[in-house]
Amino acid sequence: MLNAIKNYNISILALQEMRWPGDGKFENGVGFVISENILLYVKDFQAINERICYIWITGHIFDLIIINCYAPTEDKEHNIKEDLDRICDITSNYSVKIVLGDFNVKIGKEEVYRPTIGRDSLHDTSNDNGTRLINFCMTNGMVVSSTYFPRKDIHKQTWVAPNQVVKNQIDHNIMIQNRHKGCIKNIRTYRGADADSDHYLVIAKYMTGLSVH
């Protein structure tokens, strides 16, 4: 992981499934790894629970709030939307909010959801969790930026099954307010980062008052 941070010049790394201990089990867990040049601008960090946290970074024009999530699969009972709504309510309306993480969703290309989603998702049809995520974005005036960048399929795939055949785009990095969507300059996956995981590294380039990516 540290090699990936150095090799890909990552300023802020969001981690999911860090396997925090709880109730005798090692599961879930989210967090951030922050480079030293960004650490000076960190205003606050809050862990809401084992599946969601956020970091608040002071910017020159707008503050930046990054919300990191690990959402349950469709067969688990946990309403992460309530947590996201809570964070959006308690954080400043004048800040740039980015929501990212492992959402276990498939976002399609349905025309009915434009302009919340773009035309460049890996999948054609959204699953139930994907529809819920799109509805969250629509309610909060956000777009799913990871569906707006034309890429080869290998640079959209974020997860590979144990059989190495099935590949999906289930880590949707990132959602951002529609009025700030121009701050996201690029999003793609990288397969060269070896983190002993069935997920590929997703890198987004973000530019505004602070040059963060």
Automatic annotation (TrEMBL):
InterPro entries from the UniProt entry: Endo/exonu/phosph_ase_sf, Swc5/CFDP1/2
Regions annotated as coiled coil: none
Regions crossing the membrane: none
One GO molecular-function entry: catalytic activity
Signal peptide: none
Protein name per the record: Craniofacial development protein 2
Organism encoding this protein: Schizaphis graminum
Encoding gene, per UniProt annotation: CFDP2_20
